[in-house]
Amino acid sequence: MEAFFAACAAVAVFAVVSMTLYMLLNGLPGIGKVGWKEILFQKVWKPTAAEPSYGIFNIILTSLVGTLFAVIIGVPAGILTAVFLAEISGKRTAKLVKPAVELLSGIPSVIYGLLGLYLLNPLMYRLERKLFEGSENHQFTGGANLLSAVLVLAIMILPTVINVSETALRAVSPGIREASLGLGASRMQTVFRAVLPAARSGIFTAIVLGVGKALGEAMAIMMVSGNSVNAPYPFHSVRFLTTALVSEMAYAQGTHRQILFTIGLVLFAFIMLVNLVLNWILRKTDENS
Prior knowledge:
Blueprint: H1 2-34, H2 36-41, E1 45-46, E2 53-54, H3 57-88, H4 91-106, H5 109-131, H6 146-170, H7 174-182, H8 187-198, H9 200-216, H10 219-224, H11 241-248, H12 254-288
Antiparallel strand pairs: 1-2
Helix pairs in contact: 1-12, 3-6, 3-9, 4-6, 5-6, 6-9, 7-8, 9-12, 11-12
């Protein structure tokens, strides 16, 4: 059994190493041909032009900004929902809310995209027309813009953050709650000053998974963001790293295809970096506590 379990663990390590090597082998040739400065810091993306340009600066910035604001919106909402389910709600209320959260996690991403396309985008377009009425410089997007993408991403990461955070909160020893209440703390003080700090490891895991889901989402975002390469302003049609891969890989050839693999390598590096940074923060927090 020990050998069997070790083999299972080795499969996970092998999968990560294999993916890393594959992305390096396919992503580095594009950097060698075009140059990393032009790819990472140029803003013009015209891979099929007579004189092609492969700048992905705006695409990278869009992914970072979109993910950041989705996390700012989705993570607090998810953690507070988990607090409600684990610490505040009664059994009857939890029986209503918990299935709704589980249903959210089971909905395919294309459904989120359809709902965003037909419900959210028209609302964003109305807001856009009111804000930029009479403007001669603004290019109207029909509601398919960065703001729509951020809202859809924030909703999509909710189930992951809620489920993992709730599990972490329920795993906290009852003795911590009892000790806090015994010292005269109120129920809310106990939740936010005793239970949440004790569950921070699981909550950090929820944040990491939420960030990874936001960075890796493609289909729904492609449907609501406009899929055009622009600077990441709220009412601009934008393209994320994932949507660049999905929308162009089918017909890309030669250097264009190699640069798409480079985009995948950049995305892979971002996800790895986020994991490392959040794990480092968690270790520092544990050392200081």
